[in-house]
Amino acid sequence: MTPRNIRERIRFSVITAAAMTVLVFLVLAGIEQINRVQEAMDKKIHYLAHLGQQSLAMPVWNLDDKSMDEIIDAIFADEDVVYIAVVEKAGVMTRRIDPAYRHKPLAWFDVRKRFSTIDVPVQYDGHDLAHLQLVLSNKSLRSSIYRDFGYVFILTVLLITIITARTIAIIRSRIFSPLKEFEDAVTAIANGDMQVSIPYADKEDEIGRLGKAFESMRQSIQSLIQQLNDTNAGLEDKVRERTQDLENAHRNIRSSIEYASMIQSALIPREESFRDFFRDYFIIWEPKDVVGGDIFLFDTLRKNHDECLLMVIDCTGHGVAGAFVTMLVKAVERQIIEQLVSNDEEVSPADILICFNRVIKQLLQQQDGQSISNVGFDGSVLYINREKSCVRFAGARGSLIYTDGNELKQLRGSRHSVGYRDSDTDFVFDEYHLDVQPGTRFYLATDGYTDQLGGEHGFCLGTKRLIRSLMAGRLLPMSKQKTQLLDDLKTYQGAYERNDDVTVIGVEI
Amino acid sequence: MNQSPVLENLHIAASDYTPEIRFDVDGTFSICGKSYPENTFEFYAPVLSWLETWFTLPKQPPIVLDFELIYFNSSSSKLLYDLLDILDAHREQQDIRVNWHYHPENESAREAGEDFAEDFEYLNIHLQALA
Questions:
Q1: In chain B, domain spans
Q2: Which residues of A touch B119 (CB under 8 A)?
Q3: Which of A132, A344, A463, A475 has the lowest CB atom count within 10 Å?
Q4: Does domain A6-158 have CATH number 3.30.450.20?
Q5: Residues A458, B103: C-beta atoms closer than 8 Å
């Protein structure tokens, strides 16, 4: 089984090391003890043998059995001596054997390690008289040494156990407990609590150094977060500032456009002039934005007030860009009218479109394909002469719808726009001449109305719908007809947004 | 090796105001949706220049251009005119077919198709009412 974490691994290693230490100690100490026993036995046996040799010499010489026995008994009294004998050539003179080894011959002891044997001569005056044979058992020495050894062993085991336990306790209290606390602190930081206090940062040991490093890391992170928060707060201020700037800019642009709208409205003919000239009329002029690219122009010509020019013009785009072009158109139109009036010319709507075409191309330098701008207009020009009961019409992609009260007719203008880069300078617009009766109604419109998206499929409203609506209201007062047209448009448009400026003008002569 | 221009398929996703445009190098072109961008010239400039580049490729397969426009404003119509003009200039050496799809109830779309067919009488423009 492999320990699954560092703590168990260290405990495992420490205990193993302690056990190994005890084992090695045992082996070494054991060998030492055996040597000691052997040495002690050798010493003792030589000492006793020497003692016996010296003291037995006289009694053996004198054949003094009594003294001999006393000496032998004295030596045999030693607890280690298990066999002692004095032997001469004729046989055993005297002998003592431990009852435990009765009948054992001397040779029996010789071959056993737990006994030491010795055989020394007993001499007197240079003559060998007999032999002293001595056998010692190392039993008591051994047991006393073993007892000592046991004490030492127990002490050693006890000591090593205590050291091991202490080591483990130190490792636990100095390393693992701090690690656990670090773990808790890191977890707290990971969960966003930067205020957590880092343990052991005041200690001087390794853990203390780790704690210090950790504490300085915590402070760095905290100050980083603080900086981020500060930056964020700065950003929020900046965003607020920018938003304010944008609002200001928007307000400025808005008020500028509203002012432009006032100017554009000033270009739009006054309703009184319509009221003065026509029996009835309506005007729908609704720029998609505050200003627009649709414009209509109305001028009575000469003094008799029987002639007028009505133009409905759809300039490129809508909004401010479209409005710019309407200004230009208005300026060019003033020139054209002045020229007409001063020269007392026959009025030709086609010529007027041709004139617009050339002047706009020239003014905006759109004669060649290289110019940057490419703007112009689509439009319808209607000339009415009440005195002669005639009208003339020319269109640049614009139409004239008219009715005598019975049926509704549409005259489609030329399919050619005015002023654009690829508009032909020499293009001749078609011109229609009509004889008309009083009560005839004329309608001019830009494509804003018919191009409005809506209905079931999101298609354009279309010319057919416009014509149907005009047809249905051809006998209504024109203010009513206007309401009807606007209602139809609103209904058709539904949830769709307005996609272009819308202009529809209706007049009755 | 020929120094032929590297041309990727041109795909422009539809927006509220602009159509989906898919011009594949293999000659399959389509323009579908609505077209009334705030700046028409800016929107169509890459389409026109892509087409010009396409005609400079060493080998050009036949063109099939499918229109399915619900609505386009007058300035878009000028740019579509320019686009058809480029095709018209190559009609002699190129097999070109233009399909103008319109919904039967979408009168303006049909009329616009008719106008283009009239303006480019030599281009192969087929009006096809959608089922």
A1: 10-129
A2: 415
A3: A344
A4: yes
A5: no
Q: Could you tell me if A453 lies within 8 Å of chain B, comparing CB atoms?
A: yes
* Identity of the residue in A316, A459, A499 whose CB atom sits nearest the CB atom of B108: A459
Whose tokens are 């168990």? That residue is: A8
Please give the residue of chain B at the shortest CA–CA distance from A450.
B108
Token reading at A434: 């009509």
pLDDT band at B1 (very low <50, low <70, confident <90, very high): very low
Q: Which CATH class is domain A270-508?
A: alpha beta
CA torsion through residues A38, A40, A43, A45, sign:
negative
Tell me if A417 and B78 make a contact (CB, 8 A cut-off): yes
A373 Cβ under 8 Å from any chain B Cβ: no
Architecture in CATH of B10-129: 2-Layer Sandwich (3.30)
Q: Of A338 and A144, which is predicted with more confidence?
A: A338
User: φ, ψ for residue A8 (rounded to 5)?
Assistant: -70, -35
pLDDT at A2 over 70: no
* Residue partners of A303: CB distance under 8 A and separation at least 6: none
Which residue among B75, B103, B111 places its CB closest to the CB of A457? B103
Percent of chain B with pLDDT over 90: 63
CA angle A274, A393, A268 (to 5 degrees): 35
Q: Is the pLDDT at B96 greater than 50, yes or no?
A: yes
Chain A residue nearest residue B36, CA to CA: A499
Domain boundaries, chain A: 6-158, 197-267, 270-508
The amino acid at residue A332 is: V
- Highest-pLDDT range among A23-37, A105-119, A164-178, B56-70: B56-70
